[in-house]
Amino acid sequence: MGHAAKWDQQEIIGSPDEDNFVSLYGLKGNLVAVVAAGRMRTTGVLLIKMGDKLGFAEAQRIVADTREAES
Fold it and tell me: Does position 71 have pLDDT exceeding 70, yes or no?
C-alpha cells in the first residue's frame, strides 16, 4: 500500500519467512508505504488510516494493537 520512492525509516514486524509480517516504510516521521502478508486486519486498519497523514510511530502502535486480534 502506498508508494515509497524513498524512505528514511523501515521496520519489519513479524516473520517474513512465515508469511506473517508487516513492513512499514516512513519518510520524515510519516508512513509512506506498507508491505504485509498474513495480517489482514492490520492491513485494513493501516489502509483506512493512510487516507490521512499517518505518523510512523502511530503506525507502529496500530500494528502492535491489531497483532493480538490476529493471533
Answer: no
DSSP 3-15: --SS-SEEEEEEE
Give the number of other CB atoms < 10 A from CB of residue 48.
Answer: 11
Q: Which residues contact 44 (CB under 8 A, 6 or more apart)?
A: none
Residues 8-29: tens digit of each pLDDT: 999 999 999 999 999 999 999 9
pLDDT confidence of 67, banded at 50, 70, 90?
confident
Residues 6+ away with beta carbon under 8 Å from 10: 23, 24, 25, 26
β-partners of residue 36 are 22
Nearest-angstrom CA–CA distance, 45 and 49: 6
